[in-house]
Design brief:
Elements (H helix, E strand, L loop, with lengths): L43 H11 L10 H12 L5 H12 L39 H38 L3 H7 L23 H10 L1
C-alpha cells in the first residue's frame, strides 16, 4: 500500500470521554489506597508519639557545676524551670522510690536461674557500695587508665611477635621462605572455643545443672 499524503487523520471530538488512567496495584495484587500517606510521610499522631518518646523527661538530670550555680541564682530570683520543678516534686514524693529505683539490688539474669536463687552466691556476702558522683568519675578515670595500660602492653606484645616472625622467616632457606610467605587461608576448626581471660572453673556447669534440677 502507498501512503497518501493528502489523506487526513480522523479527528476526535473534544467532548469525547478521555481514557481512564490505569489502576495501580501492589506487588501482591491489591490496589493502592489513596487515603494512605504518600511519600513516606508519618501521620501526625505517630509523629507526636515519636516526639514524646524522644523528648521524655528523665527522673534525674546531669548538670555541670556552672549550670547548677546558674539554676540556684534563678531560684533566688523566683525563676524555676519545669525540669527543676519536676525534680523537686519527685524529692517531695520520696526520692529514689518515686523514681522507681529500689533500695535493694536488682537480680539480673533469668528469673529462678540466677546465681543467688540457685544458692551458688550468698547475697549477704556481696559488698555494698554507696558511691557519689565524684567517686564514680574517679573510678571511671582510673579504670580507663588500666585499660590503656593493658592496650599498650598488648600492642607491644603483638609488635614483638611480628618482629620475631619476620626474623624467623628471613632465617629460612629460599624454598622454605617462599612457602612461609604464602598465607594460610584455611578456616578455623568448628569446635574452636571463644577466647576467655580466665580459666574455666572445674565442675561449674555441673553445679549449675544440678541446682537447676532442684
Amino acid at each position: 500500500e502507498h501512503h497518501d499524503p493528502n489523506r487526513q487523520k480522523p479527528q476526535t471530538s473534544k467532548n469525547s470521554d478521555s481514557p481512564t488512567p490505569p489502576t495501580l496495584h501492589r506487588k501482591g495484587g491489591a490496589p493502592l489506597d489513596d487515603s494512605l500517606p504518600k511519600g513516606g510521610r508519618i501521620p501526625d499522631e505517630k509523629q507526636k508519639l515519636y516526639e514524646q518518646c524522644l523528648n521524655a523527661p528523665t527522673p534525674a538530670r546531669h548538670l555541670s557545676p556552672k549550670e547548677r550555680a546558674r539554676e540556684a541564682e534563678r531560684e533566688k530570683l523566683g525563676l524555676i524551670s519545669k525540669e527543676r520543678q519536676r525534680e523537686m516534686e519527685i524529692l517531695k514524693k520520696g526520692g529514689r522510690k518515686a523514681m522507681g529505683v529500689p533500695d535493694e539490688p536488682m537480680i539480673m539474669g533469668t528469673p529462678g536461674l540466677d546465681l543467688i536463687t540457685l544458692g551458688l552466691v550468698d547475697a549477704d556476702k556481696i559488698p555494698k557500695y554507696e558511691l557519689t558522683v565524684e567517686d564514680g568519675r574517679r573510678l571511671a578515670k582510673e579504670y580507663s587508665r588500666v585499660l590503656m595500660r593493658k592496650h599498650r602492653a598488648r600492642q607491644a606484645a603483638e609488635t614483638n611477635l611480628l618482629r620475631m616472625k619476620k626474623e624467623a622467616i628471613e632465617a629460612l632457606p629460599e624454598k622454605l621462605k617462599e612457602a612461609a610467605m604464602i598465607p594460610d587461608l584455611t578456616p578455623f576448626p568448628a569446635n574452636r572455643l571463644m577466647a576467655s581471660l580466665t580459666p574455666p572453673i572445674e565442675g561449674y556447669i555441673e553445679k549449675v545443672k544440678e541446682a537447676a534440677k532442684k
